[in-house]
Design brief:
With 172 residues, this protein is mostly beta strands. It contains no helices and 14 strands. The strands form 3 sheets. The protein has a 7-stranded antiparallel sheet with strand order 2-3-14-5-10-11-12, with no helix packed on it. Strands 6-7-8-9 form a 4-stranded antiparallel sheet, with no helix packed on it.
Length: 172
Amino acid sequence: LTDSIDSKDWTDSSSSDTGSGKINNGREFDGSSSSIYLNGVKKLAIQSDAQPFSVNMWIYPDVLGSGILYDEHASSDGGFAIRQFSTNKINVWYSYDTIDSSRTGSIILNTAGWQMVTVTYNGTTLKSYINGTEDINSNLDIDTQNTNDIRFGRWSHDPSSYYNGKADELSV
C-alpha cells in the first residue's frame, strides 16, 4: 500500500501478508497481530487547525464485528480512528482534551466482496461513504495532536483491536 502524500510507503509492524487486492496487490490482515504504519508520519488527516482531509480505502473483511481500519492516535492527547464496529458498520471516533465523540453509520458491511470506504472532513462537517453512498453526515469540530505513527489494521488505543481481512489502495 502507498499513500497519496509524497508516495510514502507503509511499513509492516507485524507480518501482514501481501496478497491480491482490488487493484493489483493489497494486504491481508489476520485479525490478531498484523498491521502496517507510516514510519515517522504522525498525522496526515487531522491537523491542529481543522484542515479539510479525506481518507479512502478498499476493504474486504474476512470477519465482521470489530477491527480498526485507520488510526491517528496520541497516547494521552486523543486521536482519530475509522473502525469496523461490532454492529458491522463503520464508526468514526474522535477524541481530544475533554471531547470524546463517535459517529456510527447505518450501512452494514459484508464479507461478500470489496467495499470502498471514504471519510471526509471539510473543516466543519464529517462525512463517510460506503461504495459512494453517504453513510455519516455530522457537524464536528476536530483538533488533535497525534504523537504516534499513523496505523492501519490495529488501534493504538486498544492493542487487542485488529482488523481481519484485506485492504487496498489506502490514500490520505
